[in-house]
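To fix ideas, we now present one chain and its tokenised fold:
***
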Amino acid sequence: MGLSRVPDLDSLELLLKVASTGSLGRAAVAHGLSQPAVTARIRGMERLVGFPLVRRGPRGSTLTPAGALLADWARDVLQAAATLDAGISSLRSERHARIRVAASLTVAEHLLPRWLVRLAAERPDTAVSLAAMNSAEVVAAVLRGDAELGFVEGPAVAAGLATRVVARDRLVVVVPPGHPWGRRRRPIDAAELAATRLVQREPASGTRAALTVALSAYGPMAAPLLELSTTSAVRSAVTAGAGPAVLSVLAVGDDLAAGRLVEVPVAGVDLTRLLRAVWPEGQHVSGPARDLLRIAGTARS
């Protein structure tokens, strides 16, 4: 749409002020400008539209017939602009009062509740929508725009995302009491762990991806004994005697303390991992998302 002869909104407002006050001087005072500056703005508008707008006389300034008609049209334009501005402000306020978060299961279940309590204390009017899913699904949700901020636990971050480390986690091998690994005096080694069929999460989970990368030097991992979609299901299967599993220490801390599970030391491999926040690359994190990112980065995991 060509708008080469349409004055800017400030100039239109100035024209209306000249019409209502009948004076370039009073219009200048109302807009915080000098009278020569107002005169220059009016002349600039006249050159732009191609016809005279203001007639100066001994009793003040009046609009020409064409200027008066332009002023009538300008009122509708300025009203529409005010409506647009109010709508934009409303959307900005709504965006700043709501945050959509996607998080991997470990983060969603064991870290985010504490972070969100702190966020609620700082921003009591903020509504939070939290979706718990595996890390691959978190990445997809953030890239689609379904979440402003995501938290993942995998070893790598997809292209198109900015990232920040917010916490560290440790994976542990767990077995039920009475399992042969639980009675060993020496740690199992990484090669034996890689060759053992484990109760595992689905392939897209961050926990499984981190374990696969950690054990990559020891050849392909054995096929899963069971493949389950939630950490709780894996933990329950291990407790019931299905077999060993590798899970976050955050997820099994209570079970280890209560004796429902036993941690098995592993030699030859580092099973620590980084937990990261992710958001669209090139996008500025603002509002409650920025505050949640700060809280996550300063909290103790």
